């Protein structure tokens, strides 16, 4: 539980800019919380990319490198807030969450409450009416306390689940993190279980392996970007976490049966025919 000693250093809001991005950086004297109010994007934390969407909460512990990029189709609207001296019992003095916890948190039933807290902190900080510092301290402690609850939920979520519901939970995790190019053992470590059993549970329900499922999710996102944006193939490759555009093209061609360029041409031709018919 959080002690009543955290300090709000700043609060800000980014709203609906399709070209918004922030290059890799870190905060040496504070930790940061980011709440996705609307839209989609990619946020890289400590070298790992995460596909983020409405209701997601991102935690950057002190000194952790991170960078943000908004989707050009569904631009991000987000709140960000810097916190110094959170002093949370049981974890490093300057951190908001344990170092072994996922920095990408699905807020679930807390989404509405957390959205309201961030909006209230932003409003109180902007207006600075009488007693605002007391209100801000109360809101901040409440927010940090709820984050601790969510972290605990994430760490115990796989307990008392039957295989079918466990497979659904694995899929939800993959849908949220399909840009993370992780190995099966890394996914298994997240769920605190044997990699073979995890793969068996997932394949039994979805007739596919977790790794292959994430590959198809990335290629599906590539198809969407090819058709709906003017992004070049190299840009899409980078957006999806592939440093080598040629390797991305090979994977896309092998998976989808045609190259990204050919797919874009064919899809554009089909759309023109539909419009003319």
UniProtKB/TrEMBL annotation:
Pfam families recorded: Cupin_2 (PF07883), HTH_18 (PF12833)
Annotated keywords: DNA-binding, Transcription, Transcription regulation
Record-linked SUPFAM superfamilies: Homeodomain-like, Regulatory protein AraC
GO molecular function: DNA-binding transcription factor activity; sequence-specific DNA binding
Domain HTH araC/xylS-type intervals: 168-266
UniProt-listed InterPro entries: Cupin_2, Homeodomain-like_sf, HTH-like, HTH_AraC, RmlC-like_jellyroll
Alphabetized PANTHER family for the sequence: ARAC-FAMILY TRANSCRIPTIONAL REGULATOR, HTH-TYPE TRANSCRIPTIONAL ACTIVATOR RHAS
Name of the protein this chain belongs to: HTH araC/xylS-type domain-containing protein
């Amino acid at each position: 539980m959080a002690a009543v000693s955290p300090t709000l250093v700043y609060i800000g809001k980014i709203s609906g800019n399709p070209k918004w991005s922030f290059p890799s950086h870190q905060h040496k004297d504070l930790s940061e919380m980011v709440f996705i109010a609307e839209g989609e994007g990619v946020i890289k934390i400590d070298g790992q990319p995460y596909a983020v969407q409405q209701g997601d909460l991102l935690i950057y512990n002190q000194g952790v490198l991170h960078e943000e990029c908004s989707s050009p189709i569904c631009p991000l609207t987000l709140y960000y807030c810097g916190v110094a001296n959170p002093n949370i019992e049981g974890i490093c003095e300057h951190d908001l969450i344990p170092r072994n916890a996922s920095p990408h948190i699905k807020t679930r039933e807390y989404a509405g409450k957390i959205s309201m807290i961030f909006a209230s902190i932003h409003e109180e900080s902007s207006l600075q009416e009488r007693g605002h510092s007391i209100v801000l301290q109360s809101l901040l402690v409440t927010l940090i306390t709820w984050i601790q609850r969510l972290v605990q939920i994430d760490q115990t979520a796989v307990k008392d689940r039957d295989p079918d519901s466990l497979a659904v939970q694995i899929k939800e995790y993959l849908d949220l993190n399909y840009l993370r190019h992780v190995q099966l053992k890394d996914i298994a470590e997240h769920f605190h279980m044997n990699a073979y059993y995890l793969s068996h549970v997932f394949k039994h329900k979805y007739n596919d392996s977790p790794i292959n499922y994430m590959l198809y999710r990335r290629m599906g996102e590539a198809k969407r970007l090819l058709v709906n944006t003017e992004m070049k193939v190299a840009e899409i490759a980078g957006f999806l976490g592939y440093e080598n555009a040629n390797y991305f093209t090979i994977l896309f061609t092998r998976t989808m049966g045609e190259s990204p360029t050919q797919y874009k041409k064919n899809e554009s031709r089909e759309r023109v025919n539909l419009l003319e018919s």
